[in-house]
Design goal:
The chain is of the alpha+beta class and 893 residues long. It is 28% helix and 24% strand. The strands form 13 sheets. The chain has an 11-stranded antiparallel sheet. Strands 7, 8, 13, 19, 21 and 22 form a 6-stranded antiparallel sheet that branches. The chain has a 6-stranded mixed sheet with strand order 24-42-43-47-44-45. Helix 13 runs antiparallel to helix 15 and helix 18 runs antiparallel to helix 19 (740-755). The chain is globular, with a radius of gyration of 29 Å.
Length: 893
């Protein structure tokens, strides 16, 4: 086995990489809630931005780390023909590679330590984005003389300032440089373009980019080079800039227009005795409202920067401890810290602002809004509540939803360029997340909160476009022009009921633009997703069960909703008839297309529950009858030629992990079928070498009647990669149905692939997927992190809410007790901090143990249980949980 890429140094997730400079593809996130977002590599490459239109450093991609000369550089001129880059980015260092380099990093701080014995210098460069609202990245540079002789150095920081939108990388790159207004002030350079340049409509720019610096005594740079043109001249580039190599004099430029900018900050020449060091501060920022000089005042000394660094470390360490593991496996505990902060990173970065990205304009998609809330509900449900309410404002009255998410909570934007695409699974996630919130909090009042509906030119689930659309605020109004609001329960019902009738030729819900797998995007007319039809069946049943908890007899909904509750009316349809379903859906669309009446009606709760159960039961029977294959698993899809997708096709076995996962999670699959699915998944989807589960088998040909995914190389992205989002949901599904050994294997396979850093070639995190070679791709920004946290806490540890009461139902494997007798986890419940400790001295495996006793803060709640599941009623829990950290001891035997 190859040597691991990194090693953990403590129990706070700090790690070190001894030869980090040998892997150009490594990158690391630095950010705060401003949002201010950076990516940084061992060569100090990567970008800095606040949004898609405001990049301080040029937008970076993974492949760009191999091809680009751009980085945050720090040069040391030691004399003619003797120049050294502390970041490693010089032509000589790239060719000779005589440096040694180590990365040490912790929860959102990054340090490179580079030295060259021949030159006689060592550099430590610490980078971080201060926690809070400061819109800056800080670089602290310490140079040390490691030779036996006195060394004279002239240090120069060199930060190329891109200063514009990512769109301008190709669109008007040179023209937009003409907008630059560059000022040289005492401590550095500011750049404020005159316009935000966009052919659809130019507008005045209010963003300023800046690079300031000082030495350890707070003294400003001695010379400042503000343009790349002067810094490099015509004969060099950023890997051997003339200004450094020829030690050019101060350019005496105070104001420059229309040039590409750089923060070239040359500090005073100084001599270093052996083992003596010198330190420097470089602050890079983006600001709209605050003057750069004012921001600089907060970080213009080493003392201020070091305090900010410590506060940043404390902030992210605290974030990582909101769900804190103390298992016998210290490596896993440290790795899990990184996974537990990933949902916060995705909330800040969205999907697009690290060097790997799915779609490059920033923000999050509809699914992200809901799934990222899952782990946040575990830690701060009171903060998630307003987010949930705002998220429902993206639902359309036809059951579809907005697909462009704005920057502000509850802000949704009409699709760009009239692109009408609808994902059929989008209606599933809001209720799943809302139900989880209700289970954790008992806050049933949330269901009666009101929200508006999203409205734009797209009608009938984007099948037609209203040519007369003129409204600007994208809010649904009734026929009288009044803003219409409905309860969140009404939104949930519309999302799930409309889909019940939205079926294709085989009476499963239409695939439309795609489901969870965005790559299944070429079966809009006749494709069907059996996998997510099963999940809609589960939702309908779970909504019915939730309604049984409510102490009411009737609910109020919009008048038009009754059309979808056909079994309550006088003319129930046959669910076996595709045409009757589609006709009913068309009747509903006609009723809501051009504005609803705004009238409300009362529906009997008992009748509503019965209607939902009928629909759910019909779907489950239909899938069981029509989609269980003789090969031993469920078919999950039909393509645009109305053909079944999965099963045996000649010598090729076609199976998808998605179909397996949702057949299990939804409750459609019986226990015997789950056993068969697991067997087939191990046979056809599990990799014999890497042990992870592929998203699908190799279909052997492109699938132009199904989706683009199968045009990708097999083993990458949505075509058969080890796609962690689905793999962790597969584990969750198995755990939830009592297949604990299997669930642990699936969950542990993800960790093992990530932990094998020599193969995965990534820092500690859960990436979006591993490719066919086992390399981690699309690091940090993935919904699978939320699902991993959710699965480990609520299923493996079995700590979760159920309609507000605390459930303790451990499903821990004996392997999770290897090296110790205890496994504990700290989390929040009912606004209280709890630490649940599972004691398993004999290290029994599930299901060989039961809960023998349960104590809360030393008081026995239950003894001699001999059950696998215990419930602490919310009232009892609140009565006893009075400590800052409330300890629950669970004895297993």
């Amino acid at each position: 086995m190859e040597k691991p890429l990194y090693q953990f140094l403590d129990n706070k997730a700090t790690f070190a990489v001894k030869e980090a400079h040998l892997n150009r593809a490594l990158y690391f996130p630095l950010c705060n809630n401003h949002p201010f977002m950076s990516a940084i590599t061992p060569y100090l490459q990567g970008d800095i931005k606040t949004d898609n239109n405001s990049f301080l450093l040029e937008p970076a991609t993974r492949i760009g780390f191999f091809t680009s000369r751009l980085n945050r550089n720090f040069w040391c001129y030691l004399g003619p023909s003797k120049v050294w880059s502390a970041s490693g980015m010089s032509k000589e260092q790239n060719i000779l590679n005589k440096d040694t380099c180590q990365v040490e990093a912790g929860l959102l701080w990054h340090r490179i330590s580079r030295q060259n014995r021949k030159i006689g210098l060592k550099a430590e460069i610490t980078s971080f984005v201060p926690a809070g609202q400061a819109p800056v990245e800080i670089m602290l540079v310490t140079l040390t003389n490691i030779s036996r002789n006195k060394i004279q150095i002239t240090p120069t920081a060199a930060i190329p300032i891109y200063g514009r939108s990512a769109n301008n990388l190709r669109d008007h790159r040179q023209v937009t440089s003409l907008l630059n207004r560059i000022k040289v002030i005492r401590y550095g350079v500011t750049v404020k373009p005159t316009l935000v340049f966009d052919e659809s409509g130019h507008k005045k720019n209010d963003t300023t980019y800046f690079v300031f610096g000082a030495d350890e005594n707070g003294l400003p740079p001695e010379s400042i080079f503000p343009t790349i043109e002067y810094f490099c001249k015509d004969c060099s580039d950023l890997e051997n800039p003339v200004a450094v190599y020829q030690n050019l004099p101060h350019p005496n430029l105070r104001y420059v227009e229309g040039k590409e900018a750089i923060g070239g900050l040359r500090f005073k020449k100084r001599k270093l005795l052996p083992q003596e060091n010198a330190s420097y501060i470089v602050v890079m920022g983006i600001t709209k409202n605050s003057p750069p000089e004012g921001i600089w005042q907060g970080f213009n000394s080493l003392a201020k920067c070091n305090r900010a660094l410590e506060k940043t470390k404390e902030f992210w360490l605290k974030k990582s401890e909101e769900i804190n593991l103390k298992s016998p496996d210290k490596e896993f505990n440290n790795w899990f810290r990184w996974v537990s902060v990933q949902p916060f990173l995705r909330k800040i970065y969205g999907c697009s602002f690290l060097p790997d990205f799915d779609y490059g304009r920033g923000g999050r998609g509809w699914r992200d809004l809901w799934q990222d809330c899952l782990s946040l509900i575990l830690t701060s449900p009171e903060q998630v509540r307003p987010t949930l309410i705002n998220n429902f404002k993206g639902v359309r009255i036809d059951g579809s939803n907005a697909t462009i998410i704005g920057q502000r909570p509850g802000e949704f934007i009409a699709d760009r360029n009239n692109i009408s695409r609808v994902w059929m699974d989008h209606g599933v996630w809001p209720f799943i997340t809302t139900l989880f919130y209700l289970n954790q909090t008992q806050d049933f009042a949330l269901l009666w909160e009101k929200a508006t509906y999203f409205c734009d030119q797209h009608l009938c689930r984007s099948r037609i476009i209203n040519p007369n659309w003129k409204q600007k605020d994208n809010i649904l109004r009734d026929k009288s022009g009044r803003t219409y609001e409905g309860t969140l329960l009404e939104h949930i019902l519309i999302q799930n009921l409309t889909q019940f009738f939205n079926v294709g030729p085989h009476n499963h819900i239409r695939l439309e633009g795609a489901d969870w797998n965005d790559g299944l995007d070429m079966a809009k007319e006749f494709g069907e997703s059996v996998a997510f039809t099963a999940m809609y069946a589960k939702n309908l049943s779970d909504i019915a069960n939730l309604l049984r908890q409510l102490k009411i007899n009737k609910i109020e909904v919009c008048q038009e909703l009754k059309i979808l509750l056909d079994s309550i009316g006088k003319n129930p349809i046959s669910y076996n008839s595709v045409s009757q379903k589609l006709n009913l859906l068309e009747t509903y669309f006609k009723a809501v297309n051009w504005g609803i009446t705004g009238k409300k009606i009362n529906i009997s709760l008992a009748s509503l529950i019965e209607d939902l159960e009928k629909k759910s039961s019909w779907i489950k029977r239909h899938i069981q009858k029509s989609e269980w294959l003789k090969e031993g698993f469920f078919n999950g899809y039909y393509d645009n030629e109305k053909k079944r997708v999965e099963g045996k096709f000649g010598k090729t076995m076609r199976m998808t992990l998605t179909s397996a996962t949702f057949a299990i999670m939804s409750g459609v699959a019986t226990d015997s079928q789950i056993a068969s699915i697991w067997k087939m998944a191990n046979r056809y989807l599990r990799d014999k070498k890497l042990k992870g589960f592929h998203l699908n088998t190799n279909f052997g040909a492109e699938q132009h009647s199904l989706g683009r995914a199968f045009s990708f190389s097999y083993g990458d992205k949505e075509n058969g990669a080890f796609f962690n989002h689905m793999a962790v949901m597969f584990a969750y599904a198995l755990y939830s149905r009592g297949f604990v050994k299997e669930g642990f294997e699936a969950l542990n396979s993800i960790y093992k692939m990530a932990q094998d850093s020599a193969t995965s070639k990534i820092y500690p995190c859960l990436p979006e997927y591993f490719n066919s070679e086992g390399q981690g791709m699309y690091c940090y920004l993935t919904g699978s992190a939320s699902w991993f946290v959710l699965t480990l806490l609520t299923q493996a540890c079995g700590i979760r809410g159920e309609y507000g009461n605390l459930i303790i139902e451990p499903k821990l494997s004996s392997q999770q007790f290897q090296g110790g007798k205890e496994f504990s986890v700290a989390t929040n419940f009912a606004d209280k901090r709890i630490e649940v400790c599972f004691l398993n001295p004999p290290k029994k495996d599930y299901p060989d143990y039961t809960i023998q006793s349960l104590c809360l803060n030393g008081q026995i709640i239950e003894a001699n249980l001999k059950r696998r599941r215990s419930i602490i009623m919310r009232s009892q829990f609140l009565e006893l949980a009075k400590m800052p950290v409330n300890k629950i001891l669970v004895a297993l035997d």
